[in-house]
Amino acid sequence: MAQNDRPEAGRYEVRVEKGAPRGDLYELEQRTRFHVIDRRSDQVVLTFEGLMEASLSTDGGGWGDASYSGVEEVLVAPGGTSVLVRHHDGREEEVPLP
Questions:
Q1: Is 72 left (phi over 0), alpha (psi -120 to 50) or beta?
Q2: What 3-state DSSP class applies to 8?
Q3: Residue 5 has pLDDT above 70, yes or no
Q4: DSSP 16-61
Q5: Contact 8, 78 (CB under 8 A)
Q6: C-alpha dihedral over 72, 67, 50, 27, to 10 degrees?
Q7: Cα separations (Å) of 39 from 11, 16, 19, 45, 86?
Q8: Centroid of chain to Cα 61
Q9: Which of 16, 23, 77, 79 is least enclosed by beta carbons within 10 angstroms?
Q10: Which stretch of DSSP H or E encloses residue 14?
Q11: CA 19 remoteness from chain centre
Q12: CA–CA separation, 98 vs 83, rounded Å?
């Protein structure tokens, strides 16, 4: 996303980094990192991670039995003093920003 196209106007933003899929013939995993960036310094102040793991289905030959762990979504909370972290297991937490 270009600098001028940023949807939030606050000090912090969340940048999502999807890792390259890894694994072998029968297993697949992909990490997703959520970086909270301080726009004033362009530095990462917090990082959260989620993981997707899947196995090759014996029924249809496609990727089945996917499981997700860790963080699913990170949002800058209204007011810009914390981030809302949503986990794949349904938990939510609010983490203060520096």
A1: alpha
A2: coil
A3: no
A4: EEEPPPEE-SSEEEEEEEEEEEETTTTEEEEEEEEEEEEEE-TTTS
A5: no
A6: -140
A7: 5, 15, 23, 10, 22
A8: 28
A9: 79
A10: strand 12-18
A11: 10
A12: 11
Whole-number pLDDT of residue 62: 75
Distance, CA of 75 to CA of 80 (rounded, Å)? 10
Q: Which residue has the tokens 């997707």?
A: 52
Locus of tokens 């983490």: 95
Q: pLDDT tens, 8-54?
A: 468 999 999 999 988 887 888 999 999 999 999 999 999 999 999 99
Token duo for residue 49: 């991670």
pTM here is 0.81
The enclosing H or E element of 69 equals strand 63-76
